[in-house]
Amino acid sequence: MSVLELDDVTYAYGEQTVVEDVSMDVEPGEFLGLVGPNGSGKTTLLKLMLGLLRPDRGSVTLFGRPAHEFADGTRVGYVSQGATGGTAGMPVTVREVVTMGRYPHVGLGRFGKRDTDRVDEALATVGVADLAGRRFSTLSGGQQQRVVIARALAADAELLALDEPTVGVDAESREAFYDLLRELNRDGLTVLLVEHDIGVVTAFASRVACINRRLFFHGDALDFSESDALRRAYGANQQLLDHHHH
Ligand code: ADP
């Protein structure tokens, strides 16, 4: 079964259609890079995929269910743009943020050693164990993103979606961050990465989806490098403009 299935998905903000007739799937264990020019609908498509927006036409199926009905917060981790996980202003420690990922598993039960171990493991995996006692809001952007990922790992998420996670992160930390994503993906986590840096995507993703409102390419990352999809997608706005002038 696919993790995600999009079938002829169309979405508009008012009169402005920003996603049009997009069909694609995401298979378990894949690393999908979502690329396209600024304002091409990447963030909107990601939100549609995660059920945070509901398509005007078409359907999105997440783990076999309509995405907008998807309520199981444990299976999907989402690192939104400039992500601080909604905890930016809260006086919580790094450990507390990651522990939140565990709550859905505990339910009304007791938070046990197994849960504490899972939190420790998640902190270590993303390399922030030494920051566990720090206030989350005092961390750098890059560190905060790692903590948000640790929270998803503590939740045993199967799908990790990230929206331009390294904006504002220095080059060295960026490299380390993508290495981490690659490792998590190798361990079986399905990764969805919205990224403007095409080089990063072709280096780390197994498949690429290139959009500019419509889907210009969906397939193997190597084939993408050799295709003219990028040029066509980035030229599409210009063509639309030309069209209006004639
Ligand atoms: P990308 O992530 O590729 O930069 P977005 O999905 O953020 O693209 O935006 C696609 C288009 O939709 C842009 O023209 C943007 O201005 C518009 N848009 C995004 N969010 C909203 C919103 N909440 N209301 C109205 N228009 C929006």
Automatic annotation (TrEMBL):
The complex is composed of two ATP-binding proteins (BtuD), two transmembrane proteins (BtuC) and a solute-binding protein (BtuF). Belongs to the ABC transporter superfamily. SMART domains: AAA. Transmembrane segments: none annotated. The lineage of its organism: Archaea, Methanobacteriati, Methanobacteriota, Stenosarchaea group, Halobacteria. The keyword Endoplasmic reticulum does not apply. It is an enzyme of class 7 (translocase). One of its GO terms (molecular function) is ATP binding. This is Cobalamin import ATP-binding protein BtuD. It catalyses: an R-cob(III)alamin(out) + ATP + H2O = an R-cob(III)alamin(in) + ADP + phosphate + H(+). Keywords: ATP-binding, Nucleotide-binding, Transport. It comes from the Archaea.
